[in-house]
Pyridoxal phosphate homeostasis protein
Amino acid sequence: MSKTRSSGTIREALDAGCRDFGENYVQEALPKVAALSGSGATWHFIGPLQGNKAKDVAQAFDWCHSIDRLKIAEALSRHRPPGMAPLEACIQVNISREATKSGVEAAEALPLAAAVARLPGLRLRGLMGIATPDVGPERQRKEFALLRGLLEDLRAEGHEVDTLSMGMTQDLEAAIAEGATMVRIGTAIFGERERKHPA
Ligand SMILES: *Cc1c(COP(=O)(O)O)cnc(C)c1O
């Protein structure tokens, strides 16, 4: 997760072999994506997504992990340039319940995923979740296990999904123990973030 990091810092990570970078503010990300074009970086959008930013995400990113409404998914699909491969898409599921409001409820994840799978500009890859912070690995593993169960349900319905985007610096071990295929690490790679990005 390279949010708040400069393109110079990201370039260092690229030189060290890191290929995938996650951003969660479109405005902050676009200049970095432009500065590093041709570098071989794969860009993941993982943040709150407003309808008026869908076009930018569809044009600049390779992945979007934070799809939680059909309207947004449709806008991403509509704006995906025809010459590009479909945008790799994950549905964000609210596995922490009280801690955050982002993501769909578990019961809504499968119907939304089925609708996303039908959109031509997107390719459904799997699910993303953020565990409750600071509650210890046992509770976090339960939350991650919920996401894994949903991915298995999607497979049982015939979807060819392969991605469980879960785990960050604080809880990556619990996430990997529950089957994460993609962890989103910021602090443990780049160090503490200096400031919170303005909302
Ligand atoms: C910032 C962020 C991360 C990385 O957090 P760290 O604690 O720095 O590893 C992971 N996932 C999302 C959605 C983020 O916004």
In short: The longest strand covers residues 122-129. The domain at 46-181 is CATH 3.20.20.10 (TIM Barrel).
